[in-house]
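$ ./design --mode recover --in tokens.txt
reading tokens...
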């Protein structure tokens, strides 16, 4: 008596996405377009760790982590970038910039942490003592001269007592003339994406067409006016990794190498199936 062989269903592709408003256009349509995906939502630093240990196959991780995780590839031209003020990545300083001696870095951040350190060193020759700002803490709890905040909490008013507030996207673009890429879709080595790379770009395109809907849905929970949410998504962010964005990435990696924040000789590598 013959038996019919059992077919096994492919394992879902484990995809990690950041929890912030700036990622919503990239993922709002993703579950519908990619039923083969098992989605995990978390902060960028934790997603980077999960990708590095193999708990995720693909993740929207801080761009600095591409340089630090050997063998990974960029899998889509969808990204989170800016070409001028970004609004959600800020350095708050209680002293004039040139007097900063201690810096607290948002625990959820790695790219923005590296960017702040590069700007302070390259422009002012500063090497401040570094500490972490826990995810549950506010800028008012900080011991340091200056603090970097990212994501949704970086968009909220931080109160009084600050001598200077830097928008790090604005500072980078004014200094270099190039966009800055904060996060990209990255795959761990030897993962089979089964067409997901095309879906990620299609999801981006659909999400960008839904910015008004996203702003309307997210504003109440964030405590930010709907018009501000829409302006942030539409006027301050870029979601396509084009030629200028790649040049900005390459400069960022070169400067990170010079400051011993990334390995030497990082080259952009793209998934080829």
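writing sequence...
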């Amino acid at each position: 008596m013959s038996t019919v062989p059992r077919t096994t269903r492919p394992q879902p592709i484990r995809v990690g996405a950041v929890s912030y408003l700036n990622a919503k256009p990239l993922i709002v349509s993703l579950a519908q377009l990619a039923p083969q995906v098992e989605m995990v939502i978390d902060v960028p630093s934790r997603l980077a760790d999960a990708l590095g240990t193999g708990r995720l196959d693909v993740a929207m991780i801080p761009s600095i982590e591409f340089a630090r995780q050997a063998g990974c590839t960029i899998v889509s031209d969808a990204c989170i970038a800016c070409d001028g003020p970004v609004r959600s990545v800020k350095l708050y300083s209680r002293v004039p910039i040139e007097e900063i001696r201690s810096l607290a870095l948002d625990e959820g951040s790695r790219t923005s942490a590296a960017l702040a350190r590069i700007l302070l060193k390259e422009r002012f020759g500063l090497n401040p003592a570094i500490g972490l700002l826990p995810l549950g803490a506010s800028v008012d709890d900080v011991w340091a001269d200056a603090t970097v905040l990212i994501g949704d909490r970086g968009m909220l008013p931080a109160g009084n007592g600050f001598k200077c507030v830097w928008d790090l996207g604005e500072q980078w673009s004014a200094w270099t003339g190039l966009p800055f890429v904060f996060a990209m879709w990255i795959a761990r080595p030897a993962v089979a994406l089964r067409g997901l790379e095309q879906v990620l770009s299609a999801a981006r395109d659909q999400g960008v067409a839904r910015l008004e809907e996203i702003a309307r849905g997210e504003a109440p929970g964030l405590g930010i006016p709907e018009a501000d949410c829409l302006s942030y998504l539409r006027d301050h962010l870029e979601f396509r990794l084009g030629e200028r964005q790649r040049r900005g990435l390459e400069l960022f990696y070169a400067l990170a190498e010079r400051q011993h924040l990334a390995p030497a000789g990082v080259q952009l590598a793209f998934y080829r199936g």
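exit 0
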